[in-house]
Amino acid sequence: MSEVFAGIVLIIGALFLFLAGLSLIRLPDLLTRLSASTKAVAFGAGLVFVAVSIFFHEVATDARAIAGIVFFAITAPIAGTVIGRSARRTGVPIWPGTVIDDGTGTTEIEPAEEAGSSGNGGETERQGLPSE
User: How many folded domains does the chain comprise?
Assistant: First the structure.
């Protein structure tokens, strides 16, 4: 009976992981892709860890599954935040329908700089790297 339950949980977790991958293809811009994929990957991986723990039901496996769940629960939101902030700071263009609520009461979006424009007068040298 526990094998059947573990299989069901594993399939649900795999479905969430599949939907995370699908969101990377179907969603229009980086911020929406990032939002959907980090949540779905964290939840899907957590369900896979739970399924492994249910199936094997050993103390060592349970401890590793709990460690994996905690790791994903901590790192996925942090990674998503860091990637999203760096994308906005570097001027990655966003979809016009994206609403950003930064807590100031306005949802106006400043236009991002042109892709490839770093505001350094057209120079290709960044952070000490030689130009090509």
Answer: 1
Contact assessment for residue 54 and residue 6, using Cβ atoms and an 8 Å cutoff: yes
CATH, residue 53? 1.10.287
Joined tokens for residue 9: 């949980």
Max CA distance (Å), the chain: 66
DSSP string, 25-68: HHSSSHHHHHHHHHHHHHHHHHHHHHHHHHHH--HHHHHHHHHH
pLDDT digit string, tens, across residues 12-31: 999 999 999 999 999 999 98
Comparing C-alpha atoms, which of 41, 107, 131 is closest to residue 79?
Answer: 41
